[in-house]
């Protein structure tokens, strides 16, 4: 019993990480039709921003309020980088999907290399508050606090994004834009502002994933974003592109499946099962669990 | 179609300048370049700054052979991306199938090389046909994602070392006992160079023949407007599957030769980064052009190799650390060049000649 509880909660922790990356990807794809390979870079920026702030920013540190400040710095850095990328690199190329993909591919290559050049290819130890390194007893299972922190953060982000989409004017524009961009433009609304906003939100969520993922794994390395990104892509496709709720469902399904199969089967079998799930979903329901048709 | 006759030989640079005298020679420039490349190992030319040793030294020939293989791989990938308009992110899988297939069959199963190569080739082609049949049921971005996911499974299978076949993270050195003596050892690098050259010639020939054939015209039609091909009564799915399988088989063939050249297999060739760099090669060279992808692939591998040496040289180390750090990362330089190319040279290197030709015409008219 305690094993199942433990596996469920660690699986949900993994799902939380996937969701934080996938929510931004999904919104960006749904609204702007940009398949963003540079999203892993935003995650790395968040992780390295937090890591840097904990050592150099006055007032920030590895414990208590200082850690919150460090994470906030990382999240802001991720959001700013994402908004800049949208303004400078993606905006001149709107409605040229292939070129946008190519630019984000180039950006992901160059960005990771830049991080590697600045801070080295080896993993760096990540600042962690002491309480995240302890475990909590849940129904007899000893669950790491960092995993619980991820779940709480992802739930908060999901609630915040949903409230934002449902009750604000920009949320309305974004929802309408995902449904039919031409119509929104025809009504005289500047959708491009919403694009920048969506990029910033996605960048912030990915940066938060980077910071909390750093706490979860205990270290930060330049390649971390890329390996998470592939699973985030799978989550986005399964969930349905453009749907945040779909991403949440898919993230939970993928995280739990991966964790349980990796524990009960051989290591690595879970990852293969996730891809099999992707193939099945695409063949039976190409638009994903909840989303518009996934054909570009 | 912007099919341009740009040969990688020095003769081509002179060709546009005097169109009258060289016009008769132009159709033969690819053959001339091939002949030149074939006799290159007999020269002891020293090119300081370009290569470390003389042209016929094993190190230089090894680098050239890697460039040739990747030029051919890029040409094969262009059959999918440039000529059929299929954005596949899983091409590394079929290349890796060739490399690991050959390596495992020779080293673990003890088969002679020709049998292993044949099996790896057919295995890679079958894999491409099977996975393509599934992946091509989707289109556009979803297709890219599915191919990426399939390639990721390949990478996981190799890295986790299921069944103890692949050697996991350390890779699997090729057991040379099953390989003919002419392909073993540093002194025989020249034979591998010729093999790589022959492979490049074969891939270029196949890609050109296919794209000039009626099938190639259908593929170009699918790229431009798939629905219209369907309306004409042709089944786009079958044509796309043919392109996918052929491209995968060509990549597997490259894998066989790469395995011989490098003397084994390492897990980094299964990574999605290899596919991404193939994409970079094709776009840098010029998609759907005759020589663009080949030149792009060769140039990319050459720069990737040379920039590593350049980055650790004393000239770069003398620069302030803000500059020397990023410059020592080949991927940073290549990624930046790639982004600039997407903005400013959409046709790639092959498109550059047409752009320069219009510029020259405009200047000479004045």
Automatic annotation (TrEMBL), chain A:
Which terms are listed as keywords in the entry? Amino-acid transport, Cell membrane, Membrane, Transmembrane, Transmembrane helix, Transport
**Membrane spanning stretches:** 65-89, 101-119, 147-165, 194-217, 229-256, 263-284
Q: Say which domain of life the source belongs to.
A: Bacteria
Bilayer topology term: Multi-pass membrane protein
Q: Which GO terms describe its biological process?
A: amino acid transport
Subcellular location per the Swiss-Prot or TrEMBL entry: Cell membrane
Q: Which GO terms describe its molecular function?
A: transmembrane transporter activity
The protein's matches in InterPro entries, at most eight in alphabetical order, are given as: ABC_transp_permease, BCAA_transport_permease
- Primary localization: membrane
UniProt GO cellular component terms: plasma membrane
Q: Which family does it belong to?
A: Belongs to the binding-protein-dependent transport system permease family. LivHM subfamily.
Q: What is this protein called?
A: Amino acid/amide ABC transporter membrane protein 1, HAAT family
**What is the originating organism of this protein?**
Micromonospora pattaloongensis
TrEMBL record, chain B:
One cellular-component annotation, GO: plasma membrane
What keywords would UniProt list here?
Cell membrane, Membrane, Transmembrane, Transmembrane helix
Membrane topology annotation: Multi-pass membrane protein
Q: Which GO terms describe its molecular function?
A: branched-chain amino acid transmembrane transporter activity
The organism's place on the tree of life at top rank? Bacteria
Give the UniProt subcellular location, in the record's own words.
Answer: Cell membrane
Question: Which protein, by its recorded name, is this?
Answer: Amino acid/amide ABC transporter membrane protein 2, HAAT family
Species assigned in the record: Micromonospora pattaloongensis
């Amino acid at each position: 019993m305690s094993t199942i509880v433990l596996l469920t909660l660690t699986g949900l922790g993994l799902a939380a990480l996937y969701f934080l990356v996938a929510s931004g990807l999904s919104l960006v794809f749904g609204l702007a039709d940009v398949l963003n390979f540079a999203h892993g870079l935003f995650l790395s920026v968040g992780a390295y921003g937090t890591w840097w702030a904990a050592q150099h920013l006055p007032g920030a540190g590895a414990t208590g309020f200082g850690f919150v400040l460090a994470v906030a710095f990382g999240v802001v850095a991720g959001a700013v980088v994402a908004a800049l990328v949208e303004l400078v690199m993606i905006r001149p190329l709107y409605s040229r999907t292939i070129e946008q993909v190519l630019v984000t591919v180039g950006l992901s290559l160059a960005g990771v290399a830049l991080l590697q050049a600045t801070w080295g290819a080896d993993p760096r130890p990540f600042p962690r508050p002491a309480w995240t390194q302890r475990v909590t007893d849940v129904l007899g299972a000893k669950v790491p606090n960092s995993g619980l922190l991820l779940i709480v953060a992802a739930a908060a982000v999901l609630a915040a994004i949903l409230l934002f989409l449902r009750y604000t004017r920009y949320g309305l524009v974004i929802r309408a834009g995902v449904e039919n961009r031409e119509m929104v433009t025809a009504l005289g609304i500047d959708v491009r502002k919403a694009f920048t906003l969506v990029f910033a939100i996605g960048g912030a969520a990915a940066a938060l994933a980077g910071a909390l993922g750093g706490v979860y794994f205990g270290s930060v390395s330049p390649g971390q974003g890329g390996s998470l990104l592939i699973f985030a892509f799978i989550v986005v496709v399964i969930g349905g592109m453009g749907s945040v709720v779909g991403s949440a469902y898919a993230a939970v399904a993928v995280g739990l499946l991966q964790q349980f199969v990796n524990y009960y089967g051989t290591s690595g079998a879970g990852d293969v099962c996730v891809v099999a799930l992707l193939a099945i979903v695409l063949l039976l329901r190409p638009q994903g669990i909840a989303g518009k048709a996934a054909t570009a | 179609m912007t099919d341009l006759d740009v040969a990688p030989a020095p003769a081509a640079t002179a060709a546009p300048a005097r169109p009258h005298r060289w016009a008769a020679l132009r159709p033969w420039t690819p053959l001339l370049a091939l002949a030149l490349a074939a006799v290159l190992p007999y020269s002891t030319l020293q090119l300081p700054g370009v290569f470390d040793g003389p042209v016929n030294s094993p190190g230089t020939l090894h680098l050239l052979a890697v460039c040739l293989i990747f030029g051919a791989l890029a040409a094969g990938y262009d059959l999918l991306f440039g000529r059929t308009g299929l954005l596949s992110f899983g091409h590394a899988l079929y290349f890796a199938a060739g490399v690991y297939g050959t390596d495992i069959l020779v080293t673990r199963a003890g088969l002679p090389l020709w049998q292993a190569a044949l099996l790896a080739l057919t295995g890679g082609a079958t894999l491409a046909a099977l996975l393509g049949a599934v992946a091509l049921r989707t289109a556009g971005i979803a297709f890219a994602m599915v191919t990426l996911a399939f390639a990721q499974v390949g990478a996981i299978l190799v890295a986790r070392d299921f069944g103890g076949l692949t050697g996991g993270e350390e890779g699997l050195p090729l057991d040379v006992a099953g390989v003919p003596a002419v392909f073993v050892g540093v002194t025989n690098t020249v034979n591998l160079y010729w093999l790589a050259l022959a492979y490049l010639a074969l891939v270029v020939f196949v890609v050109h023949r296919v794209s000039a054939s009626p099938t190639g015209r259908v593929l170009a039609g699918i790229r431009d407007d798939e629905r219209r091909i369907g309306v004409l009564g042709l089944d786009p799915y079958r044509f796309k599957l043919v392109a996918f399988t052929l491209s995968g088989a060509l990549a597997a063939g490259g894998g066989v030769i790469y395995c011989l050249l490098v003397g084994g297999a390492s897990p980094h060739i299964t990574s999605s980064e290899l596919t991404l760099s193939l994409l970079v090669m094709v776009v840098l060279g010029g998609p759907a052009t005759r020589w663009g992808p080949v030149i792009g692939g060769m140039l990319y591998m050459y720069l990737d190799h040379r920039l590593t040496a350049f980055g650790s040289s004393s000239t770069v180390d003398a620069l302030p650390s803000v500059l020397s750090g990023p410059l020592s990362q080949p991927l940073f330089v290549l990624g930046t060049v790639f982004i600039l190319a997407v903005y400013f040279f959409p046709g790639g290197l092959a498109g550059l000649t047409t752009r320069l030709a219009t510029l020259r015409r405009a200047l000479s008219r004045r």
